C-alpha cells in the first residue's frame, strides 16, 4: 500500500534525480509516485512521466492518453488541472483528433484564472490550429472535418493573408468533394474582409462561379456586388481582366434568373473572344433568340479556319451544326443555304453530317419530325459550363491563351473557338 507520504517522497526523489540527469532513476520514482490516489503529487508524477515518455518516444499515444484521462476530472481548480488539460489536448491534436484536442485546450484556457497562462494556452491553440492546415496533421483530416474545425474554432483563424490561405485551402477541399455551398460560404466573408481589392475581386469571382454552378445565381450577384461596393472599389476602374470576368459572371447569373436583356447588356461592351461569344450564344440559345445565337455561332465558326482538306474535330463540327440549328430556327433560309454550300463538304467528313444535312434543308422540305429533332438538339446545348468549371477549380484567375478545341464531346454540345475571333475568314477549299 502506497501512503500519501510515500507518494510525496517518491515524487521529490524523482525531481531530484531528474535535476541530476539520472533519467532512469527519475522515471522509477515518478512511477512510484503516480500510484498514489490522493493529492497533487500523483498528478504531477504522471505529467512528468508523460512529458519524459513523449520526448523520448518511449510511451505510446494510447498510454499517454490513458494516464492523463485518469486525472482529467480527478484534480480540479488550479494550475495543475490546466497543465493536465494542456498536455492531453496537445496529444489529441497531434494524433489526428483535432476537434477533441482543441476543445480540451479551450476548456483549459477558460478554466484558468491566470491571464498569463490563458495567453499561453491561446498561443498554443493558435499554433496547433495553424499546424492543422499546414503541417503533417493536415493530411489526417477529411475535408468535412477540416471545415468543421475551422467553423468551431473560427476565433483561432490567423488574420490576414495566412488565414485567407487556410480558408481557400479548405474551400478547395469542399469543391473537390462537390460541397459547393459549403465552399462558397467559406469564400464569401473573405470578399469584405481581405485588405486588398485585387484579392476581394479574385474571391468574388471564384465564389460567384461556384454559386452559379450550385444553382444560386442571386447569391452569385450578391457576392460580386459585395466586392464592387467596397470603399476601395469606389471611383476606381477595375483592371481589365477582372472587369471582363465579372461581366461574364454577372451575365451568366442574370441569364440563369431569366433576365436575358440584362445578361446580353453585360456582354455588349466586352471584346469578342471565345468566352464572350460562347456566352452570348448560350444565353440567346436558351432564350430562343435564334438570330442573335446564329450571329455568335457564325463568328465562332469562322474563327476555326476550317478547310475541306482536313477533317474537323467533333467539337468544330458541332459549332457548325449549332449555327445551322440557330439559322433554321430563326427562319433565315438565305444564310442557312449559304452555310450548307460553304461547309457541306467539310461536314461530310464528320459524324455530324446527317444532322447537318437535315438541319440545312430548305424550309419547304422540312417536316414536323425535323422540327421535333431540332428542338431536342436545342435542349442539350450549354456552352459556358466549362468556363464556370475553370473558375470553380481556380484555373481562371489569370488570363490564359485559348486555342482551338481538340477535345471530343458528344454531339450536339457546342464546341470552342480561339480567343480572338477573326470574322473575315471563310472555309478554305
Could you describe the 3D structure shown?
The chain folds into three domains: 4-153, Tetratricopeptide repeat domain (Serine Threonine Protein Phosphatase 5, Tetratricopeptide repeat), CATH 1.25.40.10; 158-270, Tetratricopeptide repeat domain (Serine Threonine Protein Phosphatase 5, Tetratricopeptide repeat); 287-429, no CATH class. The longest helix has 20 residues, at 115-134. It contains 21 helices and no strands. The protein has helices at residues 4-19, 23-34, 41-56, 61-72, 79-94, 98-111, 115-134, 143-152, 160-176, 180-193, 197-213, 217-228, 240-256, 260-268, 274-286, 290-302, 314-330, 333-347, 353-359, 368-378, 385-392. It starts with a helix and ends in a 37-residue tail after the last helix. With 429 residues, the protein is mostly helical. Helices cover 67% and strands 0% of the residues. The relative contact order is 0.06.
Amino acid at each position: 500500500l502506497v501512503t500519501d507520504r510515500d507518494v510525496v517522497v517518491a515524487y521529490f526523489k524523482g525531481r531530484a534525480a531528474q535535476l541530476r540527469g539520472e533519467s532512469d532513476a527519475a522515471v522509477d520514482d515518478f512511477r512510484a509516485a503516480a500510484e498514489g490516489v490522493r493529492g497533487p503529487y500523483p498528478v504531477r508524477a504522471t505529467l512528468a512521466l508523460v512529458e519524459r515518455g513523449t520526448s523520448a518516444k518511449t510511451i505510446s499515444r494510447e498510454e499517454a492518453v490513458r494516464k492523463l484521462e485518469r486525472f482529467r476530472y480527478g484534480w480540479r481548480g488550479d494550475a495543475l488541472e490546466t497543465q493536465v488539460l494542456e498536455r492531453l489536448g496537445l496529444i489529441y491534436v497531434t494524433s489526428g483528433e483535432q476537434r477533441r484536442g482543441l476543445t480540451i485546450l479551450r476548456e483549459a484556457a477558460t478554466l484558468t484564472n491566470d491571464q498569463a497562462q490563458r495567453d499561453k494556452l491561446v498561443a498554443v491553440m493558435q499554433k496547433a490550429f495553424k499546424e492543422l492546415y499546414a503541417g503533417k496533421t493536415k493530411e489526417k483530416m477529411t475535408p468535412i472535418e477540416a471545415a468543421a474545425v475551422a467553423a468551431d474554432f473560427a476565433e483561432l483563424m490567423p488574420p490576414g493573408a495566412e488565414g485567407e490561405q487556410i480558408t481557400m485551402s479548405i474551400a478547395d477541399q469542399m469543391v473537390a468533394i462537390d460541397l459547393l455551398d459549403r465552399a462558397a460560404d467559406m469564400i464569401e466573408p473573405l470578399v469584405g474582409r481581405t485588405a486588398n481589392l485585387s484579392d476581394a475581386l479574385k474571391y468574388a469571382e471564384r465564389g460567384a462561379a461556384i454559386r452559379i454552378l450550385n444553382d444560386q445565381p442571386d447569391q452569385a450577384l450578391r457576392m460580386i456586388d459585395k466586392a464592387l461596393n467596397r470603399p476601395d472599389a469606389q471611383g476606381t476602374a477595375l483592371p481589365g481582366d477582372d472587369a471582363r470576368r465579372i461581366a461574364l459572371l454577372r451575365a451568366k447569373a442574370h441569364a440563369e434568373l431569366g433576365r436575358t436583356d440584362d445578361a446580353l447588356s453585360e456582354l455588349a461592351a466586352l471584346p469578342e473572344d471565345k468566352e464572350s461569344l460562347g456566352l452570348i450564344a448560350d444565353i440567346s440559345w436558351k432564350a430562343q433568340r435564334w438570330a442573335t445565337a446564329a450571329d455568335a455561332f457564325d463568328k465562332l465558326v469562322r474563327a476555326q479556319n476550317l478547310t475541306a482538306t482536313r477533317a474537323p474535330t467533333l467539337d468544330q463540327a458541332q459549332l457548325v451544326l449549332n449555327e445551322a440549328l440557330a439559322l433554321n430556327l430563326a427562319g433565315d433560309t438565305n444564310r442557312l443555304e449559304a452555310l450548307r454550300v460553304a461547309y457541306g463538304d467539310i461536314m461530310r467528313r464528320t459524324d455530324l453530317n446527317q444532322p447537318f444535312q437535315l438541319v440545312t434543308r430548305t424550309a419547304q422540305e422540312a417536316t414536323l419530325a425535323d422540327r421535333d429533332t431540332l428542338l431536342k438538339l436545342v435542349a442539350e446545348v450549354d456552352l459556358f459550363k466549362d468556363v464556370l468549371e475553370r473558375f470553380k477549380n481556380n484555373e481562371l484567375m489569370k488570363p490564359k491563351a485559348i486555342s482551338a478545341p481538340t477535345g471530343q464531346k458528344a454531339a450536339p454540345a457546342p464546341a470552342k473557338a480561339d480567343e480572338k475571333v477573326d470574322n473575315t475568314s471563310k472555309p478554305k477549299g
